Sequence to fold (235 residues):
Amino acid sequence: MSVEPAPHNPGSLRRHLPNALTVLRLFLAAAFFVLLTPWTAGDRLLHQAVPHTFATPNWTLLWAATLFILAAATDALDGFLARRWKVTSPFGRIMDPFADKVLVVGAFIILAGPAFHFGADIRGRSPEDFQVSGVEPWMVVVALARELLVTSIRGYTEARGIAFPAEWSGKAKMILQAVAVPLILITLALADARYGTPGRTIVLWLVWTTVAVTVVSGIPYVVRASRALRTGGRE
Fold:
């Protein structure tokens, strides 16, 4: 006589902890945004964006980098725990990618905003008038467009009964973004980031590499979706 295995019955903590971490990521993202908005940061960023040194760091930027790192860590942890404990849920499937996009796209919007504009007159353009973060508004549009495209592709294919799991390129993109944003903030907090300085070179390399990977990471999704729609999901 065979004995059927007992049904999987995780405890209350295991069922709710991954989702709680996802919600925590949204709160950490909100704190990150508030810390770096012009009406909160004020002169601490706009007029002290450059230069900085290890002896006189910008603590606003360092605290913001810490909040972002903590938020990104919850992204890695909630998914790992949900899979390990077999407690994936519809709430997690919806809110986890939503929280990721709020954190990353929101960070790019802030970095492209007035809090990171350096110059005596924000309306003019001069050699000393530039976006100290290296993030321009069009880069935010590119990042947002990529996220909307992949989300739309996934929603359409899955609505037709075609499985559409995340690509390795998407995971690599998220890891790079999670590393690049705090590194940009730490560089700006500790180094001179004006034109011609090592700090500026580091910032620009981080920004342009992240933008390039963000764009390229969307290509496998488009290719796989096109193939899946042609074959009805059969490989």
In short: Confidence is low (pLDDT under 50) at residues 40-44, 120-125. The beta strands are 117-118, 130-131. DSSP finds nine helices and two strands in the chain.
